[in-house]
Amino acid sequence: MNNDSTEIRALLDRAQDAWNRGDGAAYGSCFTADATDITYVGTVYNGAGEIGRAHQVLFDSFLRGTRLTLEIVDIRRCGPDAAVVVTRGEVAKRTPGELGKLATYTVVRGADGRWLIAAVQKTKHRPLLEAVSFKVKPATRPRNARTQGAHAH
Length: 153
Fold this sequence. Notes:
Blueprint: H1 2-21, H2 24-28, E1 31-38, E2 44-46, H3 48-59, E3 67-77, E4 82-92, E5 101-109, E6 115-124, H4 127-136
């Protein structure tokens, strides 16, 4: 598992580096041929090629000059060739003050032994709404606050 965790972290580092360079092809190469990428705004991209192509257009326009900051919160193995990775992160042109987005990655090891992203879902952390929910219905508070956006410190 230790080596796998290192390889999984390296995969997300490669995706982050590709984003930060504005390289859609390199970003797409971090995904499986049939991957699903659900963006923060709710757009669903399918497959490494489409993910790379669409992100290149984004990197050349709306996301020009942005940097992806990622912090891995948890890596949980689901058998020998799959894992779920929870991250906190942010996309910004400057160093973010807080990491207000959460992403859940499903990563898989292919027949060639390389880890790739099979799916990712990005969500904005809403601490105020979360706090109201916890106050009104305390039983909604998760036992493990590590995966909560601003509460992961």
